[in-house]
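USER: Study each token:
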Amino acid sequence: MNLVIHAPNIHLGGGRTLLLALLSSLKQPAVVQLDERFEPLPELDPKVQVIRVPPSLVGRLQAERRLQLLCQRDDVLLCFGNLPPLFRSSARVFVYLQNRYLIGSRRLVGLPWSARLRIRIERLWLRHRLRNATLLVQTETMLQEVRENFGCEASILPFLPREVQPSVGQLPVLYDYLYVASGEPHKNHRRLLQAWILLASRGFRPSLCLTLDTQREAALCALVERLVRQHGLRVANKPVPPSQISGLYSQCGALIYPSLFESFGLPLLEARRAGMSIVAAERDYVRDVVTPVVTFDPESALSIARAVMRYQGEVVEPAMPGDAASFLVRLAESG
């Protein structure tokens, strides 16, 4: 039996982090098809063969055809990039499904047109080529979505990278809150920033550290800078390579996580492992992996702001309306 790993569309984010861990753990003969942009490679076992795939339509089609030739009967094919083989395979096929955009008909508002087109094509691809594959997911929430949208079962099989400790002792806390996330619309940065504006209007200015890529997410970074100037927010952007993320966790007081949906929520697990408090959206994907200390409605900036105040020990008393007579008195006074 040979192992073939097919991951031609993984080079960023949590998928990249998990694929790095997987490649580093390979101690058996394997063939791996990787995106040309997946750099740097970890130190690999000599028995592992890497085939690079150009990030183009022609490159992907060539990789799919090569995959059909590589796989023999009784081989194991692990498709790590959410999609089953385009052409029928003789191997036992496992698809590691990590992208919730591909399940159901979740709205694609806010994504670039190229991303919307790609996701629509991949949705069709996944649905029509899934028949001869076994799905692997990371959480109970993902399993439920698979059942509801595809009418089939999946195995829950999560894993984490090996823990990496900072090279020095406990680092000083530089930021009150940390949000480790790229800038896709569902990550909800804009509403998080609205919450920070609400907090500032009430005299609270907690510090927040973001990890946006300054090139890929230039527009969002520009928005952050503008709002910092306009409202005096204590928000900083610190894009760091994955190898330095553990040090960043050590420099922040709590993780805040307003994402609208996730397949796994890797930063939640990393924060838990680092011993951080977690202030997060009241969503199933959060409860799949951690128990937050405070939760909020991620679709409400006011709810996020109130959760931050609760976490910081600020009592937010509910409004106590008076009777109709006092209402009439106040109405007259305001006139």
